[in-house]
Prior knowledge:
Radius of gyration: 14 Å
Helix content: 25-40%
Order of helices and strands: HEEEEHEEEHHE
Strand content: 25-35%
Amino acid sequence: xxxxxxxxxxxxxxxxxxxxxxxxxxxxxxxxxxxxxxxxxxxxxxxxxxxxxxxxxxxxxxxxxxxxxxxxxxxxxxxxxxxxxxxxxxxxxxxxxxxxxxxxxxxxxxxxxxxxxxxxxxxxxxxxxxxx
Length: 132
């Protein structure tokens, strides 16, 4: 069962400013996306996992999160991944089994125990450049 969306305002206000600073380290990334109504640029910290030319993200809050809706509306976005800036195509839903299989073992174990994510998306990498 995903985490309740009702906690996202608190996560956005208190946790995200700290977590954005971890972007580029390990599995922490910073996703840049544009608001589909406001046109405002947003930076959202996430855990993401790369395999070849694809990024996989577990939807721990479910599929109704704003960043995913914005990516779908814009057909993609950008992501600070380690020492690279990745340009991403539109997200595609993954079957639960496929998403779980793409998670590294420590993350897979946590997801199994907590049941936080049963939905996943993949984001194709269309271009990448050095980050700064």
